Amino acid sequence: MSLSPKEISSLVDECLNNFLAAEQVKLALEKIDIHTGRIESSNTESIYLQNVIKYLCRHNRLEEWLNAVADDGFPFAERYLECITQMSSKDKQFGSYRIISRVGQGTIGNVYLAHDENGHRVTLKLITKEIVSKFSNKEELLQRFQRESNYAMLLNHPHIVRTVDSGNIDGNLYIASEYIVGKSLEDLLKDSSPLPVKQAVTIISDVLLGLEEISKNNLVHRNLKPSNILLSADGMAKIVDLGLLRSVSSDATLLTRTGNIMGTPAYMSPEQINAEKDIDIRTDLYSVGVIFYLCLCGDLPFQGSSALDIVEMHLKSPVPEPSVSINKKLLDFIRHLMEKDRSLRPASPKDALKILASIHEDPESTFAIGQLGTISRIPISVEKQAPDATYSGTGTIVTQNVLTPTSTASPLQSTKLVCEVEGVQHRLFVYAKDSLQIGRNSIEKEQQDICLRPLPAKGNEDGIRQISGKHFKIFVQNGSAYIQDLGSTVGTTLDGRQLIANEAVKLPALSTAVVANVIHLEISVIDNSPADTIGEIGSCRCEPSVFIRRKNNTPHHSYLLLVGKAALKWEDASFCAMEKGSNEILNVNNTLWLSGSVCGDGKAEPIGEGYSFSNQNSRFSFGVIRAEDQK
């Protein structure tokens, strides 16, 4: 139903007359934040007013209504008009980003849903120059912001929300990260707390995997809490806010010169409270222990009437017995993570994950340590979102395809696709992620995705030794694909050019790489437009994918780094991948889905272990990638 400004004004009149006295109402409405338009009040009449304003925003009628009621006893209308004018003239276009809507508010900045110049959805966090001006040492703040945002852009992991861009536009700081369809752990706990044990263990396992990647890059999050853990629609946990907003607001210490608490005392380790200079990843493990306690028990371990009371308990009090019954081994694990002396905690997230996997009692659950294994997830309920339009790069807007999932089965994050022809197994190894590390080491080794060796091993010993354990990697970032030699002994060439160690080189549409003068790879970069959305599960990204085919030695092995989507084709008794085709494989929230003729129009099927289909007199089967598959 569409309401006129007069009708909306009457509704607000009725709201105000039926609740608080006029003076109290005016006091509540004066709390409007002029920079954000947000009403900083939980009073019933303010909540009602916010709902009215949301309605008007959806129908592009807000400014019209505010003009209509500004002179009728609504002093707040003028303030809102000023806010809307600012938003219209400034915030809708910020640099190369077009802001769609405000989706949240951080400690010192607002969070927006935006589109980049290619039409990709991103989460954009803005710290305006007005806020920056409030800091006494602005130059140091700006330098620290740039340094730490650069660190964050180095992290590329399924359990970390990817930072894609950051910078300073006219004194306004911004951070752009991938957009995740889902909700925060904080929101999930508001809806259902405590969590089922299986779900809590899975979420904590995901967080530990993300922290392991952070630790390997010699970084520490230092502000881990439920609001900084996002859950995609399939239940996968991702760490967000990699110390950026927190760092620029609180520097590296907990206490300011005036002794005020900065940060989130409920989740802080003793060494962080004491502002020790040599804080390491074990401070994040302490926070994980607090979060795990909250997930399983429904309450924080330490609660007090003030922040200082809570700080005191973190420093001196043992972890209390929970008010609900939980598994003793899991409680002991939490206490292990929350040892006051960090030397008594697990040494790393990987060690903590191994302990957790060993004590978990559900025989049907397995845990991904490194790159292997699967996690049994519980999907979460998220608000259904209309698919955005995506920019095609040709000046036109292309609407996303919306597909219906055919099953609630859990899809794999990587898979081995096999087709047998005349007794030879042709294998395509598919990875739903942003980067692949490739070398001689077995995939059982830490952080190794592809074991690249001349086959068979017997008779090819010299060639195997030529390839370094961690030889090179291929990754996708900010709409482009790159190859990078990892300091290998013999080296890597791309189209005859020797790659400089640890220097990323952009991949052309088609190229040939030679690894250690032994194995030749044909590399194709596959564009992805438009992006597809699968029901409420999420969307694949408008990012390129990379198809890699062995040209010599075991040419029936090929690899696909699937960042967005790619069409699969069986041609000349081998796999190939291209931009469009009758059957497409999709990466949605780092899980694998299939769409096209084998699924039916408008449908998508999760690719799980044992999934198979037939096409053109050939049978294709999917399975888990095992170490022996590539040796």
From TrEMBL:
CDD domains: FHA (cd00060), STKc_PknB_like (cd14014). It holds the Pfam family FHA. InterPro entries: Atg1-like (IPR045269), FHA_dom (IPR000253), Kinase-like_dom_sf (IPR011009), Prot_kinase_dom (IPR000719), SMAD_FHA_dom_sf (IPR008984). One of its GO terms (molecular function) is protein serine/threonine kinase activity. PROSITE patterns: FHA_DOMAIN (PS50006), PROTEIN_KINASE_DOM (PS50011). Residues 436-499 form the FHA domain. GO terms for cellular component: autophagosome; cytosol; membrane; phagophore assembly site. It comes from the Bacteria. This is Serine/threonine protein kinase. It comes from Uabimicrobium amorphum.
